[in-house]
Amino acid sequence: MVEVDADETYIAIVTRGRVKQSVFGANGREKILYILQPGEIFGEFAYLGGGKDLIIGQAMEYSEVSVIFEDKLNRILSNNLEAYKYIAHSMCRKFRILMMQMSDLIFKDSMGRLCDILLRLYHQQGRVTENGHLIDLPLTHENLAHLIGCDRVTVTRGLNRLRKEGIIDVDRKKIIIKELDRLEDYV
């Protein structure tokens, strides 16, 4: 968990590992909004928009982050248009991700959302291997459920269906897409 004094404004840069950013409902249910990898930032909404950041960051594996507090950040950004563009790019990217998630929740069933997130994660964090298209991210069924807004049992059923159809394989929390075209057909 990333913990910084709640009164401090900052931007953090993921330098190693992967950090998920989530919100939690009053009932404790988690919704994963983003999975950040090295070079990506968080805290920019609170820095530029003011107020408290309600998004919780948690490492998904061993991770390191560098934190830049507001006064130093102001000095860095005062004459650095490229740094401002990077922050704006990060915010736009996250906004697009949220819009896609909202659209999926409204217009797709749970199987469509599952297949869509597998494709997105592959394009963001994947690579081709001799066994297929590997999503190079340690994912539990619970993580996937929190990403697509359903329960773990629904994700397990969907993954089992895809596995039986020969579309995917799962090996130690890593998902291998065997038939990319057939997975896209579900979306």
UniProtKB/TrEMBL annotation:
CC annotations in GO: cytosol
An MF annotation (GO) of this entry: DNA-binding transcription factor activity
Ranges for domain Cyclic nucleotide-binding: 1-94
Gene3D superfamilies reported for this sequence: Jelly Rolls (2.60.120.10), Winged helix-like DNA-binding domain superfamily/Winged helix DNA-binding domain (1.10.10.10)
UniProt domain HTH crp-type: residue ranges: 108-181
Alphabetical list of SUPFAM superfamilies matching this protein: cAMP-binding domain-like, Winged helix' DNA-binding domain
Annotated protein name in UniProt: CRP-like cAMP-binding protein
